[in-house]
Specification:
Shape: elongated
Helix content: 40-55%
Largest sheet: 4 strands, parallel
CATH topology of the largest domain: Cytochrome Bc1 Complex, Chain C
Radius of gyration: 35 Å
CATH architecture of the largest domain: Up-down Bundle
Bound molecules: protoporphyrin IX containing FE, iron/sulfur cluster
CATH superfamily of the largest domain: Cytochrome Bc1 Complex, Chain C
Number of helices: 19
Number of strands: 20
Strand content: 15-25%
Strand order of the largest sheet: 7-6-8-9
Amino acid sequence: MFFELLRRFLDRGFGSELNPLNHLGALTIYFFWIVTISGIWLFLFFKTSVSGAYESVEYLTHEQWYLGGVMRSLHRYASDAAIITLALHMIREFVYDRYRGNRWFSWVTGIPLLWMVFPLGITGYWLVWDQLAWYVALTSAELLDWFPVFSDSMARNFLSLDALSNRFFTLMAFVHLIGLPLFLVFGIWLHVLRINGPRINPPRVLMAGSLAAMTVLSFSWPALSQGEVDMAQVPQSLGLDWYYLLVYPLMKTWSPAWVWGLLFGVSLLLFAAPWLPPQRSKSAAAVDLDNCNGCSRCADDCPFGAITMMERSDGKAYEKEAVVDPSLCMSCAMCVGSCPTATPFRRHSALSPGIDMPDLSAATLRETILKVSRKLTGNCRILVFGCEGHDKTAKLKSGLNDNETATVDIICVAQLPPSFIDFVLSRDLAEGVVLAGCAGGECLYRFGEQWTGLRIERQRDPRLRKRVDADRIALAWQEPWSGLSDTTTVVAALRNSLPAGDIAEQGADEKISLPPARENAWKLPLTIAAYTLFMVIVGWLSVWPRYQLIEQNQAMVSLSFSHAGHHIRECRKLTQEELNKLPPNMRKADDCPRERLPVRIAFSSDGNTLYEASRPPTGLWNDGESNVYHRMVIPAGKQKLFIGMIDSRREEGFDYSLEQEVDFLPGQHVVVEFDSIQQSFIFKVE
Ligand code: HEM
Ligand code: SF4
Ligand code: SF4
């Protein structure tokens, strides 16, 4: 419903050909092009070091605002716009049921693209190294720490500048600029691999419009950094890019396990979607070699690349033969419409074209045409061919199936070979023919409208024969506001224009007269309104609403250290008897276990326990240090902090502890560390 409304609104401004909703995949790729080109410029000036990163981005933004600044804004806004078109692309394929059956491949290969696009944006935010970058880096590291891959906690690197190295920025730049983009290009190639003639470039007008919109936005609302990183001070609020960082605020209340659970859960659901519930399987197109002359038109027209032209296998004089791969065939029947042997004029042989649909064969179609037309009476009989997916045909069936009008259901409007129209008109089965299909990019099978239009306009084989009077044919997929959108209206208009009962042989060279679209005075204002709305949505959600990291009167404490617990038991001297049992090269006086005890921690403020945990040892043999990392928000003001740690088997008291009064300023960030040399705690107030 939402999509239908949006489509109608955009149709009014752009027209169905240029409606951005029909080019969402291509627009996403186009926005990535803008991101790539602007990114190259930024990279030329970017310094991959802790001290240089922020400075170099600031230089680009302010000193070189006219070019570097605009490039930076374009880079950000085009990345955000790509998320909008990507989300709409996904929803659209889902809503229009274009993800099931043999289309599962494009759907399933689309999901890993999400897992590349989001990290691509997120790593971009790290590189700026402003306060937002610090928040993103810290939260991302907290999320990644959930995987037991690294022995140390990654998040601890972002609590003090000393822990950060320039190599980290080189690594991030590599991931953001080379690693992920390469995977993305490969992923997109795979994603459209099974689609015949995928639309990877939007129409030029849309390219120009989108670039203009992004440039206007970049000049009017330049992308800015959010202050230099100061790890001793937590920003109260941040302008979050909600397109890329939507799940980050969840980390305030959710554990990393829940966040990953959500992300993996949604991905699994998406992976399973094409089979939930399973689609009724339709029969694939079948080739009849006796009638196939190897002309390859079917292979050219198949929207899903399901037909391959192979060496002739039956010894006939033709060079090639059509071979259908049933695992790719979507049963759209467009190949039947393109096959020159699918002609209803055959009198003596059965109508058996080179390629046909077992569920609705060309012969059955001819029978149906003959049957329904026989029932028609009156001077202005009209046959309407409507595709199954065209709801207007259904409406028409109930409303207009009078004595003078009959409807014939076909799989897709492009199933009908033009020779069938010739057949209907020249055999006097009706005075007029209406082809009712889905408008613009809404054809379930992608090219229904396009192929039909071109064949009827005699621009693509098989062409409508010249002897057919073009005035007797009407196509019913005009733009909705043209006044002729409804098939019933098209039928009525065709009937009014027909010289009843007189099948004219002349006028053969005329072009098919599509019902004239009404002048749309709103076109330009609506297009401008659509672009303005798009700019506002892109710009707004890229920093707004601001995310409240901590309240005005709050501060933050992070516990961050590693410490090894005692071994699970004391070393023990081996007896002579035990030593004798061991091979000579393995004899040693002491038997010491490798495994260590967990480290137990308690942290409190003014007597209230804020954190209590038992941290297990790391390492494959449980012989490594235990990592302690925990971030807490606490009220500002004077507080008596206490931290205690047990690394032994003791039941009461602590092996190490520190109690200290700290006067927290609002937003202050205190890190609690353990000095392994002094064997004591420190409240690090930078
Ligand atoms: C970087 C992100 C993506 C890009 C650049 C992209 C691009 C494209 C392009 C160019 C097409 C061909 C469109 C056509 O010729 O009609 C396409 C088709 C398709 N995409 Fe995507 N896509 C992306 C992500 C996704 C995602 C995340 C999904 C869903 C999970 C998805 C689902 C599909 C499906 C089902 C089709 C096939 C449509 C058909 O057979 O008619 N795509 N995509
Ligand atoms: S029915 Fe459609 S998808 Fe199948 S082979 Fe024919 S044109 Fe291709
Ligand atoms: S269009 Fe018909 S005749 Fe031509 S290759 Fe395909 S099946 Fe054979």
